[in-house]
Amino acid sequence: MQFDDVAISIKSLTKSFGEHTILDNLNIEIPRNKITSLLGFSGAGKSTLLKHILGLLSPTSGTVNVLGSDLADMSPIQLREFRRNFGMLFQYAALFDSLSAKGNVAFPLCEFTDMTEHKIQNKAAELLLSVGIKEVSFDKLPSELSGGMRKRVGLARGLALSPAIMLFDEPTTGLDPITTRMVNDLIVETSIKNKDRGMTSVIISHDIKATLEISDFIAFLDHGNIVEYLPVNEFVKSKNPLVLEFINL
Amino acid sequence: MSRSYVEKVGLSVINSINGLGSVSRFGSKFFYWFLKPPFRIKNLFEQFYFIGNKSLFIVCLSGSFTGMVMAYQVYFGFKLISVDSLVGPVVAITMAKELGPVLTGLIVAGRAGAAMAAQIGTMKVTEQIDALEVMGIDSFQYLAVPRIIASTICLPMLSCLFVLVGNIGSILVGTKALMIDESLYLSKLGEFMFLPDLLQGVIKAIVFGFLIGVIGTYFGFRVTKGAEGVGKGTNLAVVWGMISVLIIDYFLTSFLVRIL
Q1: What is the CA radius of gyration of chain A?
Q2: Are residues A97 and B135, on separate chains, in Cβ contact within 8 Å?
Q3: Where exactly are the structural domains of chain B?
Q4: CA angle, B247 as apex, B243 and B252 as ends, to 5°?
Q5: Quick one: pLDDT at residue B121?
Q6: A1-67+165-173+197-249 belongs to which homologous superfamily?
Q7: Bridge partners for A86 per DSSP
Q8: A84, A107, A167 ranked by CB distance to B136: nearest
Q9: ipTM score of the complex?
């Protein structure tokens, strides 16, 4: 699929570890301002692809172009600075366990902005409220929060620096149906709220039901390659046997 | 049978050399990062507090009892050859040159080295380190640098405290329990104890502090496989921290006795 406004463009991406090839001549364009999901069985290469998008891994061959910049042309320091364009919600939220909920959200603001302490606290509170965390939980440590609340705080932290691209790594894995619904709603809400500034969302998942509900486009990975990439309404009608098998699981 | 034995020995030698190279490469990153901004002073002071302040009690306790025991042991040995007045300087020199830095090193390796590996290892398995990297923060600079600086600075301070408290213990036992004349004890101390003796201990403690910081953080970053991995990493940090203190002590001693 080709788009007019592309956020991420990956061409002929191959990644091998020794003799083991994880990504095999992979091509994909991810549109700006949309929710794109990367689906696939475990070991299909989803996480490796994500690490290439973030510049945490370098390709064996091929190019990864994000927001118009080729990551291979960047020095490690430039790459580090470039990563501030990304926000990420990790599978288990990955909150800093020594910091409170508010401290976690304030952390990127303290590190990368010149805002005063007062403004940072206000902004962190605003972000937490926007993802549905009540003031009473602001000072709680991650260990005192439920799984769903941790995801909300993780999302607020990911959004703190107003990223151009928001990545979601298995956002609903291991959650109960109600919390799964809540996280899905939150992803859609976040995407709508940030539509004006063109935020792109990329979700890595193997939760087919959730993915169909919230995505604009779905790419299906198998053995390091994209075997199907379609808008969500066409994806459900795919005749690809692997996709059919995955949908019917 | 014998070939298999030779293979095993060879493999363990190769692994040891690889490990040593890996730790050295990890440690050398410190010299690249520690002068690079941003300087996270708050993080550094948190580590000073944890490694320095929180080790005070155990260091003072160990120092005082080591000094007191040394005074007894040396006194009964020296009494046989009628040089019991030299108990003070012998205890003081031994503490300053050897026992202070080595025992403090072992205590800090056990307490702070283990904590460093456990904290960083837990962060690794719960993706907190990945979160730092995704935010564009170098995890080595953020986590390892403050810990290595703090242990390098705190260890000589703790070692000096160990020596001071140990000598106070030795003086108390020597003059109050063993009845050595107080003025004689103190005068002999001044007569035989010199600045290079103290300096030798301080240099050793600085090197041990750096090593403990590097080894503790190295094994933290190497953690894999969940809680079991954290436990293994912590164990390795303590074992190798202590072993390196003892081995490096020998080489440092053989070097420093020539130049000081």
Answers
A1: 18
A2: no
A3: 54-259
A4: 140
A5: 95
A6: P-loop containing nucleotide triphosphate hydrolases (3.40.50.300)
A7: A165
A8: A84
A9: 0.85
Residues shown for chain A: 249
Cβ pair A97:B128 closer than 8 A: yes
Set of chain B residues whose Cβ sits within 8 Å of the Cβ of A108: 135
Tens of pLDDT along B186-239? 888 888 888 888 999 999 999 999 999 999 999 999 998 788 999 999 999 999
Backbone angles phi, psi at A7, to 5 degrees: -90, -45
A84–B133 CB contact, under 8 Å: no
Q: From the CA of B127, how many Å to the nearest CA of chain A?
A: 5
Q: Which two tokens stand for residue B237?
A: 């940090």
Burial of B206 (0-12, 13-18, 19+ CB in 10 A): middle
- Consecutive 10-residue averages of pLDDT for chain A (249 residues): 82 89 90 91 86 90 92 89 90 91 94 92 92 91 90 91 90 80 84 84 86 89 89 87 81
Catalogue the long-range contacts made by B81-88 (C-beta closer than 8 Å, 24 or more residues apart): B84/B178, B84/B180, B85/B180, B85/B181, B85/B184, B85/B185, B85/B188, B86/B188, B86/B192, B87/B170, B87/B174, B87/B178, B87/B180, B87/B185, B88/B170, B88/B171, B88/B174, B88/B180, B88/B185, B88/B186, B88/B188, B88/B189
Contact residues, chain A to chain B, C-beta under 8 Å: 54, 56, 80-84, 86, 88, 90-92, 94-97, 107-108, 111-112, 167
DSSP-derived pairing of the beta strands A86-89 and A217-222: unpaired
